[in-house]
Design goal:
Blueprint: H1 9-51, H2 57-86, H3 92-127
Keywords: Membrane, Transmembrane, Transmembrane helix
């Protein structure tokens, strides 16, 4: 007969695994956003400047500061990952704080990637090319 885990099993071990996965996903997405900001955004900037169209404000801001924001986001996610690693052997409240921090960083990374997408396609919507 197999023994079932104790009632606090997930809160003791599972939360650390989920936190590590969330932090890993945030890091992967942050690095992806850095690559997008480094390679894709300049290509979009050249394309729309060749059309001679006026760029919306959100597009100009993302084109100007995209690499810096993406690099800062990668550093923040790495710091959050370090916090997760350091809080593994700590009390449950510190593990919960690390979990919430990892979730907030993942949401911020999703928002940044979404903002890059909106900024790249905003000039197309402004020109009326989308049906």
């Amino acid at each position: 007969m197999t023994s079932s885990p104790t009632p606090g099993y997930f809160s003791r071990y599972g939360r650390g695994i989920v936190t590590t996965l969330v932090c890993g996903a945030a890091l992967l997405l942050a690095v992806l956003s850095l690559l997008i900001a480094h390679f894709t955004v300049p290509a979009f900037a050249e394309l729309f400047q060749s059309f001679g169209s006026d760029l919306p404000a959100i597009t100009r801001i993302v084109f100007a500061y995209g690499k810096l924001i993406a690099l800062l986001l990668v550093v923040l996610v790495l710091a959050g990952g370090l916090n997760v690693l350091l809080s593994r052997q700590q009390e449950k409240t510190q593990q919960d704080q690390a979990f919430y921090l990892a979730c907030v960083l993942l949401v911020l990374t999703f928002l940044w990637v979404g903002l890059i997408g909106v900024a790249c396609y905003a000039p197309i919507w402004a020109m009326g090319a989308v049906v």
